[in-house]
Amino acid sequence: MTQKILPVPNSIDDTLKLLSAADYLADRSLATVLFLALRMGRPIFLEGEAGVGKTEIAKVLSQTLGRKLIRLQCYEGLDVASAVYEWNYAAQMIAIRAAEAEGKQDRSQIEHDVFDERFLIKRPLLQALEPDTAGPPVLLIDELDRSDEAFEAFLLEVLADFQVTIPELGTIKAERPPIVVITSNRTREIHDALKRRCLYHWVGYPSAARELEIVRAKVPGIGKKLSEQIVGFVQAMRKQDLFKSPGVAETLDWATALSELDAVALDPATVSDTLGVLLKYQDDIARLEGGKVKELLDQVQAELRAAE
């Protein structure tokens, strides 16, 4: 039975509804760029601090559009063999020895037989070019800034024409381009040549009101007072001179952890004991331990009282 292909959104409002259906609370500017990327068939390039929800966008698109999610996690030294394809050399050697045992002497025929698609190990970029009954997949190229510039240059052909060339088989081109989401934590600059092939959006930290919505959507059952204090405290922390400010992912982890501890409100001892959920560097934790935690907490509580 043929699987029904779910259409992409027809408007910015539909895009916002699509994201919110998976509890992803986006602002209108992100929804606009995402809508345009889907309608124009262009990759979307998302930059921002770690933990602000860039990767989650690809997951949400996969879930709400019913498409396969193919993820390429980038790292230093990533090459074609890991990203696109490689040959199964062990299986090829077995096939060659089997052919020789059967008395086959035509070397050109043997070479033709072993460089067959059944011996091809398909990596994420090649998988993303294959047709799918559910529609073109969502290709997530995650943390591109961690890869080398040589791999970034290789991506230019893939993103320009949605095709790759395998010398033994020829050029493989997508019948319909995948939905491409590229993320970067901006540990290095990505070349303009690649950015020009994409629609761009900077994903920043959310406002306090939006982050509160996210916490209440993602951590059901959390108390009103506690959720307000959590968001207020995290927002205040981001104004401090920290090596790595907590992202939304850390806010949600902290909210979940405090719920597990049955906390109903923040106090200096609880905050100090759980700082390791929010902060990942000892120097940052040391800056906030002691009197600084109480100072920020008093500030947050005063702001909440003034807002009542």
Please characterize this protein's 3D structure.
By secondary structure, this protein is an alpha/beta fold. It has three domains: 12-84 and 123-202, Rossmann fold; 87-117; 208-301. It has helices at residues 12-21, 28-40, 54-65, 80-83, 89-101, 107-114, 124-127, 149-161, 192-195, 208-218, 224-237, 248-260, 268-273, 275-278, 282-288, 291-307; strands at 44-47, 69-73, 85-87, 120-122, 138-142, 163-166, 170-173, 179-184, 199-202. Strands 2-5-8-1-9 form a five-stranded parallel beta sheet. Strand 6 (163-166) and strand 7 (170-173) form a beta hairpin. Helix 10 (208-218) packs across helix 11 (224-237) and helix 10 packs across helix 12. The chain starts with 11 loop residues before the first helix and ends with a helix.
Q: How many domains in all?
A: 3
At CATH level 2, the architecture of the largest domain is 3-Layer(aba) Sandwich
Distance between the termini: 57 Å
The CATH topology label of the largest domain is Rossmann fold
CATH homology superfamily of the largest domain: P-loop containing nucleotide triphosphate hydrolases
